[in-house]
Write a structure and sequence with these properties.
Strand order of the largest sheet: 1-3-2-4-6-5
Helix content: 55-70%
Number of helices: 20
Radius of gyration: 25 Å
Number of strands: 6
Shape: globular
Largest sheet: 6 strands, mixed
Length: 509
């Protein structure tokens, strides 16, 4: 019976029109994204407006880059700018801003511009993938099912986040790594290296792929392979760390504080690192109310463990390591990095795990490992209802808020072309009665940077430099008091969403 079913499926696959299947594989993920918002939320995907804090900062940074390049106001946290003085951008660095900003310079930058970029970037990446790899009909069907049910793609297409860029690069790199593993062509390795060098400034973890890239190149000489693999990943990881350390503005998260601690006292640093690792391991298997993030953790761990078994078998039988080593290195490195230096929290680990898992999934399809890929597809399918519940694109907003910002706040903001960056910067308090880091900031003119104040006590020993301060006038921070009174801020405008003040101590004329 099973043989008859398999035979029927093979004949059906063989009869499928190749061009139609190619067109479906390339276009359906973006078409699904366009259809989901009106189907589930009753609005167009193009009604998007950035709303979450990360989206707002990304959007404003790109908008500033489009209008002023590197000459706009300062983006930072607690007024700590990047060491590299030429970069005014915040804790996500300048590289992603530059990529989307260059597109914005060509086509303009609107509230939904990132959505347009994603809807075009996804089919272009899929087209490049299938044109380079030339998969047969069966592989194209599996790829189509994988991409249609790859919920992270549908979650992030209607956003202003950088995750879609990384997933698209995973598709392209998956194709190139498949060819590189199968054919060992030098040209494929060169293209992989070039793409990784472009991506590392955007996200440091892409540097880890230099390990399988170098190892597989010298695989016939195991000692040379391991030396070059370790050397290359160390060099490019250190280079990426240097870039992050000097071109990203500091943010008080664990990965930045642990580096400082290790450099100052390595014994205490190692103890903190071990405690953080144990905490993250415990959190890895806990449900935090976001079922899709938990599912992805288990999917990632499953593929890693299966690849580890394959690798062990090949080592015992002295076979070529090939793809099994690639999957272990790709997934093992990101798991170890997140557990040691990052956070298992909300969607933070989710965003880090998605691209490597998609990369491995693409290589598995091209390897004909349909069983393992089917587990990924079916488990995603099983959580379709959860995806529908958690699908919340930002398309609802109150135009009166944007109007009030334009009428009350903007007239008091004066962009100073000759002043320093702090003269064109607004300090926005994260805490208080108003959600100030929200879509209202999209109405503020492009050149003004935003520095987020997480702790007013930072300014007990040092002066606040931002010329403008947008706060809840009644807010008082424990052990600090009222920023308005303590800093002697001068009222410029009141609004229903916080009041704008001028800082008399800002380094401006």
């Amino acid at each position: 019976m099973m043989n008859l079913a398999a035979d029927y499926f093979s004949r059906a696959v063989a009869r499928m029109p190749r061009r139609g299947l190619l067109l479906a594989t390339v276009l359906f993920p973006s078409l699904l994204a366009i259809a989901l918002t009106p189907l589930l939320k009753g609005a167009s995907i193009f009604d998007f407006i950035p709303n979450s804090s990360d989206e707002i900062i990304y959007w404003r940074e790109i908008n500033s880059f489009v209008e002023y390049g590197f000459s706009g106001g300062q983006y930072s946290t607690n007024e700590y700018p990047a060491d590299f003085a030429a970069s005014p951008f915040g804790s996500h660095g300048p590289a992603f801003i530059g990529v989307y900003g260059l597109i914005g310079k060509l086509f303009g930058w609107q509230a939904n511009s990132a959505v347009w970029i994603h809807l075009i970037l996804v089919p272009l990446s899929i087209l490049l993938m299938v044109q380079v790899a030339r998969p047969d009909v069966r592989k194209q069907l599996v790829l189509l099912a994988l991409l249609l049910l790859w919920w992270p793609l549908q979650i992030y297409i209607p956003t202003n986040m950088q995750e879609v860029l990384h997933m698209c690069m995973a598709l392209v790199l998956g194709t190139l790594f498949h060819r590189y593993i199968q054919l060992r062509q030098r040209s494929d390795g060169v293209w992989i290296a070039v793409l990784l060098l472009v991506l590392i400034p955007i996200r440091l973890t892409w540097a880890f792929l230099f390990f399988p890239l170098a190892f597989l190149y010298f695989e016939n000489n195991p000692m040379k392979a391991i030396v070059f693999a370790l050397f290359s990943v160390a060099i490019f990881s250190l280079a990426g760390t240097f870039f992050v350390r000097h071109f990203y503005s500091p943010y008080p998260w664990f990965s930045s504080t642990i580096l400082e601690l290790l450099l100052s006292d390595w014994r205490i640093g190692l103890r903190e690192l071990a405690q953080h690792f144990v905490l993250n391991v415990g959190l890895y298997f806990q449900s935090n109310g976001l079922a899709l993030t938990v599912l992805l953790r288990y999917q990632l761990l499953l593929v890693f463990l299966v690849a580890l078994v394959w690798l062990g078998h090949r080592l015992r039988s002295r076979q070529v390591l090939g793809a099994s080593l690639f999957h272990v290195a790709n997934l093992g490195a990101i798991i170890l990095f997140v557990l040691l230096f990052y956070d298992i929290l909300d969607t933070r680990d989710y965003r880090m795990f998605v691209p490597p898992l998609l990369l491995s999934a693409v290589v598995l399809v091209f390897q004909n490992k349909f069983g393992l890929v089917s587990v990924l597809i079916l488990s995603n399918l099983a959580l379709t209802g959860t995806f529908v519940e958690q699908y919340r694109p930002n398309h609802q907003y109150d135009p009166r808020i944007l109007q009030e910002v334009d009428q009350r706040i903007n007239p008091e903001l004066v962009f100073d072309l000759d002043g320093n960056r702090w003269c064109n910067t607004i300090a926005v308090a994260k805490y208080g009665a108003y959600p100030l880091i929200g879509y209202g900031l999209t109405a503020v003119p492009a050149g003004f940077g935003i520095t987020t104040i997480l702790d007013w006590a930072e300014f007990i020993e040092r002066p606040l430099q931002s010329k403008y301060v947008w706060v809840d006038s009644e807010y008082e921070q424990p052990n600090y008091g009222s920023p308005v009174r303590r800093l002697n801020l001068q009222l410029l405008a009141r609004s229903a969403h916080g009041d704008l003040y001028e800082n008399p101590h800002a380094p401006c004329d």
